[in-house]
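ASSEMBLY PREDICTION REQUEST
Request ID: AP-0331
Submitted by: J.K., bench scientist
Number of chains: two
Total residues: 571
Priority: normal
Notes: Please return the full assembly, not individual chains.
Input sequences:
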Amino acid sequence: MSVHTIVVESVIPLSAEQKKDIAALLKKKFGTEKFVERINPDILGGVRILADSTQYDASLAGKLQQLRNL
Amino acid sequence: MTSSFLSSLEKQLEAAKLEPTKKSVGVMSSFGDGIAQATGLDEVMYGELVLLGKNTYGLALNLKAEHVGIVLLSEDRGLKVGDTVTSTGRLLSIGVSDEIIGRVVDPLGNVLDGKADIKVKSYEALEKIAPGVIARKSVTVPLQTGIKAIDAMIPIGRGQRELIIGDRGTGKSSIGLGTILNQKGQNVICVYVAIGQKRSFVAQTTAILEKAGAMEYSVIVAATASDSAATQFLAPYAGVAIAEYFLKQGKDVLVIYDDLSKHAVAYREISLLLRRPSGREAYPGDVFYLHSRLLERACRLNEDFGGGSITALPIIETQASDVSAYIPTNVISITDGQIYLEADLFNSGVKPAINVGLSVSRVGSAAQLKSMKQVAGKMRLDLAQYRELAAFAQFSSDLDAKTKAQLERGARVATILNQPWDEPMPVEEQVAVIYAATNGYVDSVQLKYVRNWEVAALEYLKMNHPAILTSIRKESKIMDDTEKLLKEALASFTAMHTEWR
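STATUS: Completed
Returned structure:
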């Protein structure tokens, strides 16, 4: 599976260690380590990764939404 | 109290599985006229429900390499270009339970009658492939419309698809509604789908059905003229989805689509806005499939599959009696026959204004009661002869006695077939009246009194000879001794009433 763009969203800038962890994860899943960082306060916490049009949501906002749908 | 509430809340929260999710998302790139285009959404399915922005839902109908065309289903206020579009992984469905009987709902299952929400028991998919060949069985049980002209000459069976076609104001809806009224106590659930009708008409229809006690076994699905084209497009599929819920329970269901012309127009609007290529009369190429896949869902299942049935009565409105227009010819070819209503007949006082010559039922005669068959054959002949002679007799004043008698007979039979739409008649009474007319018991009655005679004769039979009507209803055909009794009763009744001669 080849992915063109990967965007990683977080509320505060990621630390060097976090970046390394994410890059390793992306390498395993998509075969690439390159990603764009984006600061997005709307997600409240955690990270949200957008690989082309597929969204992997591990953010606080996403969890709250899941609670709302219960 | 408070602590127990808190602990139950805690329990719920503990039970909640909050895990990272994976979903297909996109960005809305343009939007207008109830249509949105979105980029991304790589994994969206055809006909999938998608969420636009925070709380607007849409239906993904055009899947292209560079974008997805989405038809909006709810209010589009607050949407802006750049909003996120999220796939839900759900195909469009309607929430149904037994509670839906007696209610007025929109095609998405929202209640429109101001009463409590419906407690959903199961979700029925709006788009579904019709039952296959193995599951089906031929039509053998009649669906009595209560309308003499139809039950006698264009019989409808349970599981049949019979088109009602005619110009505006010729009584198309009345036939559908009259049929619903007649299903009281017949173990048939009725679904009336109003597509692009006036809201006043839907309100009036609901009131009529309620007053007649018909809402106890009916559901109304309404997508009125002021609703979006998408809602109108979905309405008939929602109607048949509700019908399928009851079909699964092995019940007989009657669905009336009023009307499919407006449905085709709504679909044309959507297709043009989605920039699909247009064909004849600007309808898209798949407008035939639009109606065929809907009407194919009418069926009679065999016992292994529950034995229920869905009877469909689609209505088509013609312009200036043009049945060779695109949509009418399509639907005529899909259905198992049509009831053709004519403005000329309507205006000359024939109600229901059915053109018997052009109306047919291709499968219903297998389901017709034997007793009705016994009397209807003769009536058809009487009427055909009458029409032929009536056209001929216009040119000559002196006719021989036999011709005159045939004309008199025909005129009376034709009058007997007139009937107010909201007074459906039980089949045994229909048989008795038609028997009387075709066997000459009404010949001596003056034409203008025929209706009075009919009402009084039925009263007389019900009061003094209930056994005759019971026998016709119970036995599949008119037994010899019943016929003898009926003859005697009619003769003595006619002898009593000399004032109408």
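REVIEWER COMMENTS: The CA atoms of residues 107 and 219 of chain B lie 12 Å apart.
SIGN-OFF: pending second reviewer
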